[in-house]
């Protein structure tokens, strides 16, 4: 394929960390409850899309490389995603696509990359559509909507700072179809830290997609969906007021609830590891002894996200270096911060 400046786009898009968790979905990737996240920065995917015209035969023509190598498993997920959205991006069947994708974090770190990967790809596609339609700006609601169809949590990665996905009475224009910014937040949360402690790099025994499905038969599901709605109300209020202690309490409650839901699924399963629990114990002890607002959250896996305000970075660094790093696989920690969302590179 001939590569010219006109037929390449490249975007960087970050991962995000949910404080109120999305866990349970229905229909075409619609959430059972609202979720609220902080968009990250250091943990990101860079995706490059090259495209050349072809006859419009109604089919998707795709070559896919992950970190420079052909990757059939990822290719098949991307191909079915592109097929699912070809009515919404009609140019998809008019071009041959060659896609290259790179993650900033080590491939084997056990970090879920679907949020950054899907949103980076969608930003490239929305940018191509913008150019073809000769419009000025990317329609970010459409970008969030399409990212959601790739992976639910990806809908939130296109938003800078704090993002809400799912209809909620406190945020005007919020929707189950796309994420929206939560703008009324205290500056303390704009510079929050998230140190991602890699406890294990093993592949998860149950994928998130399977976990969402198991919520459909979980006896606690109705109470959980109501609880998540109410926690979202509390979190929005805490973030507006700059109440980091309340924020942290909600983050930890949500993390443990998420894992309790896994443990109460049929069949039950556990994604935490012994070092996850040791780290939680150490974080809580340190907080109590030193009165420092440092908290944890977890995604659907064993790794710990250590959340704290920038002004406490030096104190938390002592906890990380003296206690927590030794619990990490290969001593691996990704030091991340709240970020500004996707960036165009080419
Ligand atoms: C625990 O977005 O990975 O991280 O929509 O099936 O792709 P799919 O699921 P995914 O689920 C993420 C769940 C979570 C919580 C969250 O990010 O809100």
What does this molecule look like?
The chain is of the alpha+beta class. It contains nine helices and 14 strands. The chain has helices at 72-84, 114-132, 140-150, 154-157, 208-215, 221-241, 244-263, 274-290, 313-324; strands at residues 8-20, 25-26, 30-31, 35-53, 61-66, 69-70, 95-103, 162-165, 179-181, 193-197, 295-298, 304-308, 333-337, 343-344. Strands 1, 4, 5, 6, 7, 8, 9 and 14 form an eight-stranded mixed beta sheet that branches. The chain has a four-stranded antiparallel beta sheet with strand order 11-12-10-13. A hairpin with a 5-residue loop joins strand 11 (295-298) and strand 12. Helix 2 (114-132) packs across helix 3 (140-150) and helix 6 packs antiparallel against helix 7. The radius of gyration is 20 Å and the shape is globular. The two termini are 18 Å apart. The relative contact order is 0.18. Ligand DP6 binds at residues 18, 21-23, 29, 35, 112, 114, 151-153, 208-209, 212, 258, 299-300.
Ions, cofactors and other ligands present here are: ligand DP6
Mean pLDDT: 95
How many strand elements?
14
Percent of residues in helices: 25-40%
Number of helices: 9
């Amino acid at each position: 394929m001939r590569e010219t400046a006109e037929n390449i786009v490249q975007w960087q898009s970050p991962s995000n960390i949910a404080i109120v968790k999305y866990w349970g979905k229905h229909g075409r990737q619609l959430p059972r409850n609202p979720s609220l996240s902080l968009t990250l920065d250091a943990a990101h995917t860079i995706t490059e899309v090259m495209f050349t015209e072809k006859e419009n035969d109604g089919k998707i023509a795709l070559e896919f490389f992950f970190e420079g190598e052909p990757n059939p498993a990822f290719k098949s997920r991307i191909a079915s995603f592109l097929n699912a959205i070809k009515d919404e991006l009609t140019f998809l069947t008019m071009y041959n696509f060659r896609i290259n994708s790179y993650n900033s974090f080590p491939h084997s770190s056990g970090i879920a990359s679907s949020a950054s990967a899907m949103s980076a790809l969608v930003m490239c596609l929305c940018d191509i559509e913008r150019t073809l339609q000769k419009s000025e700006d990317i329609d970010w609601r459409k970008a969030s909507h399409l990212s959601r169809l790739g992976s639910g949590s990806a809908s939130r990665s296109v938003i800078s700072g704090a993002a809400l996905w799912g209809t909620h009475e406190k945020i005007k224009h919020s929707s189950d179809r796309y994420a929206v910014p939560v703008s009324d937040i205290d500056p303390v949360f704009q510079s929050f830290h998230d140190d991602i402690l890699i406890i294990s790099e093993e592949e998860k025994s149950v994928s998130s997609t399977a976990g969402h499905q198991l919520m459909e038969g979980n006896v606690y599901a109705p109470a959980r969906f109501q609880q998540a709605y109410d926690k979202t109300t509390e979190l929005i209020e805490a973030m507006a007021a700059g109440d980091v202690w309340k924020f942290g309490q909600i983050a930890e409650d949500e993390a443990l609830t998420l894992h309790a839901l896994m443990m109460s699924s049929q069949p039950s399963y556990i994604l935490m590891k012994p070092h996850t629990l040791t780290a939680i114990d150490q974080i809580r002890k340190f907080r109590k002894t030193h009165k420092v607002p440092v908290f944890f959250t977890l995604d659907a896996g064993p790794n710990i996200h250590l959340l704290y305000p920038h002004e406490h970075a030096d104190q938390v660094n002592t906890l990380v270096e003296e206690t927590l790093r030794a619990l990490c696989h290969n001593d691996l920690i990704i030091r991340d911060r709240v970020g500004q969302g996707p960036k165009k590179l080419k």
